Amino acid sequence: MSDSLSVQQARKLILHSQQLATTGPSRSGSAISATLSAIEHLGYIQIDTISAVQRAHHHTLWNRNPHYDATHLDQLLASKQVFEYWSHAAAYLPMRDYRYSLPRKHAIASGEQGHWYEPDKPLMKAVLKRIASEGPLMAKDFEYRGEKLGEWRSKPAKRALECLYMRGDLMISERRNFHKVYELTERVLGPTVNTTAPTTEEYGRFLIKRYLEANGVGQPAEISYLRKNTKPLIATTLRSMLADGELVQLDVGGNQYVALPRSLALLNTPLARNKLAILSPFDNLLIQRKRMQALFNFDYLIECYVPQHKRQYGYFSLPILWNGKLVARMDCKADRRESHLHILHLAVEPSLENIDGLAHALCKKLPSFMQFNRCTQLSLHKASPNNYLAILRTAFAKITP
């Protein structure tokens, strides 16, 4: 027998768990400590290279910490409080969770789990020896004049570096102009980091608890999303935790979810009234598209991978969260040379009726978003439905960053 939540209650629980429902962290701590706290709570921050607007890892943290600065991640990496590795994708992870990256690393090292690059063991040995002798190196430090290989057109040394990184022999000590700098793992880790591999049971419980702390409610397929070979472990551990009362089962609109019992207290906290967030396509809230469709009735596809003539909304449309709902998407391009933020297309969901309210909320949020993207000018080029264009342009004309 499961308890039930309305879809609206589930959304509220999710948004509080995602730290998108409040007015932001208090000023009692430092800005960088708020950034670390957000990373530790969410469990990971996805790294992405697209720079139509500020990159996704910065954008995601800015939405949780209004005092976020793009130097924070470099500082936290240097102080060994976060590290780079793989979550469901490339990500910054809290160093306190380092030991839970070991099951994947050990599986890749043993050959139990495949890697997108075939290991070249003699080359990997030579690369490792050179880093041990010379210190941190980038892929460009390895000369190669031959043909680059594979889908990503990468040179052999880059492939060797990535194999060594994914299996745990190397870590990323820093980034220079967004390029990875590889170093021996033992020289990156601080002396207090727990390097003991978790037991199978510990690992299963970690994956479940981390997911539910950050996401409020979840299903087995969501918890194991893009985590190879974890589905049976998560299914078994979920059954055990439900039987022990560590989790509760919830019916949400006819679908079954699980949650941590203590998380249900978040339902007593109201959502921040009229709060609007301009989200990255790679924001932790949005990364599972089927989940967004089921729980937020928001059918989202990032179209940068879609041929231009087939795009409906634009190259890099940013979902708009307002009053607890996903109500629009905004395709943006920051022209940093001209300090100009171009809203190429603002598409409003058909379910939204209060366009004036949305325009007002956007006018309050856009100045800080422009500053975040180092822009002082704003242009709106297209809106859908088209009759909203004049309303929105009139509202935006009053914006002063």
TrEMBL record:
Pfam families: AlkZ-like. InterPro entries: AlkZ-like. This is Winged helix-turn-helix domain-containing protein. It comes from Zhongshania arctica.
